[in-house]
Design brief:
mainly alpha; single chain
């Protein structure tokens, strides 16, 4: 195997019949299409990577798969291949004279339309709620993705966007960058337009591209940084760029998410591999080898030092986050019912690979059968094989704590190594054969990829379908479903559907009696004014975790419930507990003042409202309630002053407030 425009002194692998290769690909794609159709009838089974068609009408499923199988018929395939080739050739000729980077930029910008139009409609998968919540609060909660958080926080503040919109927009922008990187890779890798088209279509139709469809999570930029690392690693081995570039992009990927560190061994290989050089540079290469190796070692040492520094700082400033094991049982602290050796884990791994990179499975099956033709001594093959092994190790040994199906995004990058390796080898085997053969392979693999990936994208682009699929996933992994029910409860809470929210919190509690779940269940009851049930849930949360960092919220909500049922003295006690924990929160003083006012304790209410105003001078309601309280105490001048202050900040209430002020003025005038 040789890069375009380079020479290699390595022995060429034995030639193999491309017709045999084509038949293998055809049968593998037919099998892939059929298992997607069959799996669509069994949503309750652990087939989550291939059953997306279930969420579409039966007629649609059958029609799509029938068309896919029809395309595999040789005569139909040949016709479509020829048509496809002619259209692509015409377009390539028309834009041949245009600057390639301008073309790549235009294609990338156009892809933004597709990514945004088909963006995910819910934040249910992964930790979407947590990520958006971090940005809304301006507080880093999970330290595994520091750069990703600060990038989204910066954009959120610059453009005044909420966390959900920020993640959605940047996800699509990351998708445009991904398309640009693919085009650069095609230019590096393919020898002609047909090879470049083949590479582009396979990479553009990977299931992992869901990360770029407005997806709310922290993996989009890590994924494209990993892509850039592989791209510049291949450029380095080709002799087109220096070793520093892959170093920088691996550091960037790890800064976006620490999981990128799993491919670090491949950087060691790059540091000591001999990059290919054009023949005219061979003599100079002999004299440069020692210098190159030294600079590579220096760069590698710098990378390792920066990584260890980052890990040290993480352990120092976030000891609670850096403790514990992330490995699956029995290698780590994961649950024993879901171990490395369990059938569920193996099935999840296969499901995931079929989801994120369906065509790579076909390519690897072909390469497994034709492994005798592969030259494993080639540097690029070694590099890509190393990345594949590292990423598969990550996929197999790291514990998917949310359940593999819902934590799919954490492992989305694990399909990169196998896809790149499969593409690289298959393109090389097919290279030099009849031009139409690659065209037929393109059509076959494209159809298989679309039938695998498009339903997955479309399901997430539909709110109704996404919720239905998510609920099915929770049934598959019931022992790990508590967090999923929490996400779903939050989703319906934000939509104001509190009855559904209550049912979901109860399901979460049945699996994991977490004090936080009791607290949020109490909040849901409070929204529906079911105060007795709310108090029961809130008291349970307090009993289970009296020293929880957010226990002040539970005391506050319990106090509100007690006040609503007329138990004012107990309500005051709860609010005072809240204030003792959060003495600088103006809202808590305002609530306490209201409760004291309702119970007729006006003298005690006044300093509460005054403190609320001192802590937050923009709290208009505190001015109003202080004025009303003074009015009830008979202090007309003070009441008028604070009500006028309220009126200046809230002119929309002018008719009501002016009426009160006029009444006070009359009373002042007549001495009443």
């Amino acid at each position: 195997m040789k890069f375009k425009g380079t020479a290699s002194n390595e022995a060429s692998p034995p030639q193999i019949s491309s017709a045999r290769m084509e038949r293998l690909i055809l049968f593998a794609c037919a099998f892939l299409i059929l298992i997607h159709l069959i799996a669509s009838f069994f949503p309750h089974l652990r087939l989550w990577g291939i059953n997306q068609l279930h969420y579409f009408p039966l007629e649609f499923r059958i029609a799509v798969c029938a068309i896919g199988l029809l395309v595999l018929v040789p005569k139909v395939n040949e016709f479509l291949s020829e048509l496809f080739t002619r259209v692509f050739t015409l377009l390539a000729e028309r834009f041949k004279k245009k600057n390639k980077y301008l073309k790549y930029s235009l294609i990338s910008l156009l892809s933004l339309i597709v990514f945004w139009f088909l963006r995910a409609k819910t934040p249910l998968l992964g930790d979407g709620y947590l990520r958006a919540g971090e940005v809304n609060l301006g507080r880093l909660i999970s330290i595994t993705e520091p750069l990703d958080f600060y990038l989204h926080l910066l954009v959120s503040k610059l453009f005044n966007l909420d966390g959900y919109t920020t993640y959605g927009v940047l996800s699509c922008i990351a998708g445009a960058i991904y398309i640009f990187l693919i085009l650069l890779l095609c230019d590096l890798w393919g020898k002609d337009n047909k090879e470049r088209l083949f590479i582009f279509l396979i990479l553009a139709t990977m299931g992992a591209t869901q990360l770029f469809f407005g997806y709310i999570e922290s993996y989009s930029f890590m994924y494209i940084s990993m892509m850039a690392y592989i791209f510049f690693g291949m450029r380095y081995l080709k002799g087109k760029s220096g070793f520093l570039w892959p170093c920088l992009f691996l550091l960037l990927a790890a800064s976006f998410h620490l999981s990128a560190l799993f491919v670090l061994p491949s950087l060691f290989y790059l540091a000591f591999a001999k990059p290919l050089q054009p023949s005219r540079q061979k003599i100079r290469r002999i004299h440069r080898t020692g210098k190159i190796k030294f600079t590579n070692v220096v760069s590698l040492v710098c990378v390792i030092s920066l990584i260890f520094l980052g890990l040290y700082l993480m352990k120092t400033y976030f000891p609670q986050e850096s403790s514990g094991s992330f490995l699956i049982f029995p290698f780590g602290s994961g649950e024993s019912f879901y171990s490395f050796f369990s059938m569920a884990h193996l099935m999840d791994f296969v499901n995931h690979q079929l989801l994120i990179s369906p065509v790579s499975i076909v390519l690897c099956l072909v390469l497994l059968i034709l492994r005798g033709s592969i030259n494993f001594k080639e540097n690029v093959v070694k590099f890509l094989l190393g990345i594949m092994v590292c990423l598969f190790g990550f996929a197999l040994f790291v514990d998917p704590k949310l359940g593999y199906a819902r934590d799919w995004d954490l492992f989305a990058s694990t399909g990169l190594g196998v896809t790149f390796l499969g593409l690289y080898l298959v393109v090389d085997i097919l290279r030099g054969e009849k031009t139409m053969e690659l065209g037929r392979v393109i059509v076959v693999l494209l159809v298989a990829a679309l039938i695998s990936t498009m339903p997955w994208i479309l399901v997430n682009a539909s709110e109704e379908k996404a919720i239905e699929r998510f609920e099915e996933l929770l049934k598959i992994d019931e022992k790990r479903a508590a967090h999923g029910y929490e996400n779903l409860a939050c989703y319906f809470r934000d939509k104001g559907e509190h009855e559904k929210t209550i049912k979901l919190w109860k399901k979460a509690i049945a699996i994991n009696p977490n004090p936080r779940y009791y607290g949020t269940l109490g909040n849901a009851y409070l929204k529906l004014k079911r105060y007795d049930q709310a108090m029961e849930a809130l008291n349970q949360a307090i009993q289970m975790a009296p020293y929880h960092p957010l226990i002040h919220l539970t005391y506050k909500n319990l106090g509100i419930c007690l006040a609503e049922v007329g138990r004012y003295d107990e309500a005051v006690t709860q609010l005072k507990k809240t204030i003792s924990l959060e003495p600088n929160n103006a809202v808590y003083y305002y609530i306490l003042g209201n409760i004291l006012g309702k119970s007729g304790r006006y003298e005690e209410a006044v300093p509460c409202f005054e403190t609320a105003i001192r802590l937050d001078s923009t709290n208009a309601n505190a001015y109003k309630m202080l004025g009303v309280t003074y009015g009830r105490m008979g202090k007309k001048e003070e009441a008028k002053r604070y009500l006028e202050a309220y009126l200046r900040s809230t002119p929309k209430d002018a008719p009501m407030i002016k009426g009160i002020i006029d009444s006070i003025e009359i009373q002042i005038e007549y001495g009443r």
